[in-house]
Amino acid sequence: MRVDFYQVDVFTIALFKGNPAGVVLNADALTAAEMQSIAREVNNPETAFVLKPQDDSHDIRIRYFTPNIEVSGCGHATLAACYVWARQRGFKKRLINLKLPHGILPVELLGDGKNKRVFMTQSLPKFKSVLSGSGKNHLLNALNLTPKDLIRTPVQVVDSEDSKILIPLKDKNLLNNLTPDFGRLVDVSVQFNCNGFHVFTLDNQNDITTTYARTFSPAIGVNEDPVAGSGNGHLGAYLVKYQLIKHNNRCFQFVSRQGEDINRSGFAHVTVKIEDGIPTAVKVGGDVRLVFATTIEL
Questions:
Q1: Cβ pair 237, 278 in contact under 8 A
Q2: What is the Cα–Cα distance from 6 to 38, expressed in whole angstroms?
Q3: Is 251 exposed, middle or buried (0-12, 13-18, 19+ CB in 10 A)?
Q4: Catalytic machinery residues
Q5: pLDDT surpassing 70 at residue 279
Q6: pTM to 2 decimals?
Q7: Residue range 246-252: average pLDDT?
Q8: Is the Cα torsion angle 291, 66, 218, 198 positive or negative in sign?
Q9: Three state DSSP letters for 149-194
Q10: Would you give the DSSP letter of residue 131?
Q11: Distance CA 156, CA 265 (A)
C-alpha cells in the first residue's frame, strides 16, 4: 500500500521556520498502529491523517498523532491538513467543515498564488482549574521560576481541542531563558489532566507583536512546540477574560510570536469576538508553506 505524505510549515512564509506538520491524505485504509508508525518515523510535533466524511455535515475528518501518542486535536496540523486537502482540489473550496469528536469546526483559506493563510475557528476555550498552593509551586519549580516572575493573573488550565496551562510572565528575558525540567512538567500534566504549558509575556518591546510565547508539551512527546495554534487561541480568550489588553468590546486581533529560541520563528494570528467583555468566539491561523511531497510504501 502507498500513501501520499506532505510536509508543511505553518505560521510562516519562509521554509524551515514556523511549526512543521505532516499530512497524509486518504488515510482511511490505515490502522491506528500504522498511523502511529508514520508519525514516529517523520517525527514532526504532529502528523494529521485525513479521513473521508461520514455524512453531508462536513468535508473531512482528521486523526492526530505525535511521535508518541494519538491526541484529540492540534491547531497547526489542522491548518496544514486543510491546506493540503484544498490544494489537491485546486483551492476551489475555501471553506472547509472539519468534524472532530467535539463538533464541527469551520476552516477558511485566504490569499492567492503561493501565499495562503489558513484560519480555524476553535471550540470556545473553557477556563478550568486555577493552580495554587503546592500544585502551582510544583509547576514553577519545573520551569525554574518563582512567584515574583509572574504577573498578577491566574495560572490556569484552558481547554478546547486540547488543554494547556497558561502561565503569564513579566518580561521577555524570563521567557527566553526558561530551562524547563521536562520530567517534572510531565508530572504536572498528569496532575492537572493537560497536555502542555503555554508560557507568554506581553513585554513586546515596541514590536508589532502583542505577545511572545513558548509552548512545552513533554507529556505527549513534544518538549517544545515551535508555534502553537490552539495554545495561542486559548491565550486570546485569556487576554480578554482577564482584561490584559484594550479592545472595543466587539473584536480583538493580535499576533503572537514564537519559536525564536529553537530557530523556528513564526507568527500566529488570533481574532477574538467579544460580547459584554466576555470572549464568545476564537479564530486562529497563519501562513502556510508546502515543503515537500512524497510517497510512503507500507
A1: no
A2: 12
A3: exposed
A4: 46
A5: yes
A6: 0.96
A7: 94
A8: positive
A9: HECCCCCEEEECCCEEEEEEECCHHHHHCCCCCHHHHHHHHHHHCC
A10: P
A11: 26
